[in-house]
Amino acid sequence: MAKFGGLCFLLILTFTVCESRPLSIFPPTCNRIECPSYTVVDSGNGFEIRRINPTKWITTLPIDDISFVDATRSGFRQLFKYIQGQNDKQQKIEMTGPVITEVKPSDGPFCASSFAISFYVPKVNQGNTPSADGLHVQSWGETYVAVRQFSGFVADDDVGQEAAALYDNLAGTAWADAVYKRHGNEGASNYIVAQYNSPFEFTNRVNEIWLTFDWEG
After folding, report:
1. pTM, whole model, 2 decimals?
2. Among 54, 56, 67, 117, which is most buried by a count of CB atoms within 10 Å?
């Protein structure tokens, strides 16, 4: 069963800017709780290309805020109530990872961005996923993502820097055109922040930037 301690899962969000390098850390959290399964298709300097198997997510309505940290905290509180049984089936749901935040950046530093926070639905619940007011189910088919890892405790100012760094990592690779076709100009479109760790974990923290894209190769 989901434990009360999960309430703090995202109350402190984490990362610092990392130097470019191939990804090498499998999130330790995924050895303890269920995470989406994927295949690593390619890796390079500071990035990894994954093919994620079909998944379901329970997602908040968009939250407008100037703070990534505050918006994600607010969204996770809604999701925590959901997994604790405040859903149409009054069903408790196991904690999973990662919790992801889709970011739609604002046009300026003092304007609110839009954030949608999602909880990965365990496989046992994907066939008949409970619903709840203010939340909706997203179904992902097989999905390609470009990934950059980072670690440490989160600061709002750093999230966009990490997303921009992923674009830089991808520049000149075979994947760049597909990513840019989906996302437009560098750093100007949506990205996802995936977070795996409890705030009580001070080592081996793993967070990621995801850029989804279409691939027919």
Report:
1. 0.86
2. 117
Cβ(36)–Cβ(126) below 8 Å: no
Residue-wise DSSP of 170-206: HTTSTTHHHHHHHH-STTSS-EEEEE---TT--SS--
3-state class (DSSP) for residue 49: strand
pLDDT tens for the chain, 217 residues long, are 444 344 333 333 333 333 445 566 788 889 999 999 999 999 999 999 999 999 999 999 999 999 999 999 999 999 999 999 999 999 999 999 999 999 999 877 778 999 999 999 999 999 999 999 999 999 999 999 999 999 877 789 889 999 999 999 999 999 999 998 887 754 457 999 999 987 777 877 889 999 999 998 6
User: Among 94, 71, 87, 66, which Cα is nearest to 6's?
Assistant: 94
User: What is the rounded CA–CA span in Å between residue 173 and residue 30?
Assistant: 29
Angle at Cα 9 formed by Cα 7 and Cα 183, nearest 5°? 125
Query: Are the C-beta atoms of 56 and 140 separated by less than 8 Å?
Result: yes
Contact status, residue 93 vs residue 83, Cβ threshold 8 Å: yes
Instruction: Mention every residue, 6+ apart, whose C-beta is less than 8 A from residue 188.
Output: 105
**Are residues 72 and 115 in contact, defined by beta-carbon separation less than 8 angstroms?**
yes
